[in-house]
Write a sequence for this structure.
């Protein structure tokens, strides 16, 4: 009985720690700590591909990769999601919270 409960709890924790692409696009991401990419980040098909973030150069109309998402967490008990973003230029990381 204890083994069944332990297995259930472990599977629940593992699945609740994953943040999907749909979650990334659904939430508004607010700056938390570390490297600063802006107060808020919103993801869509134009600025997010796989785990890479892009920005559009208005003058040349070219997309430039500027960061990658290195960690995603679905923090069940706090009721929010968390991502860690790493700058491709400096290697610094910043944390953002999905609300």
């Amino acid at each position: 009985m204890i083994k069944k409960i332990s297995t259930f709890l472990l599977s629940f924790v593992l699945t609740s720690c994953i943040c999907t692409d749909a979650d990334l696009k659904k939430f508004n991401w607010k700056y938390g700590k570390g490297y600063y990419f802006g107060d808020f980040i919103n993801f869509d098909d134009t600025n997010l591909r796989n785990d890479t973030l892009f920005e559009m150069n208005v003058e040349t109309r070219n997309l430039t990769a500027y960061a990658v998402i290195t960690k995603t967490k679905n923090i069940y008990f706090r009721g929010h999601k968390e991502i860690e973003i790493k700058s491709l230029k400096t290697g610094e990381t910043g944390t953002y919270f999905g609300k």
In short: Residues 4-17 have pLDDT under 50 and may be disordered. The longest helix spans residues 2-16.
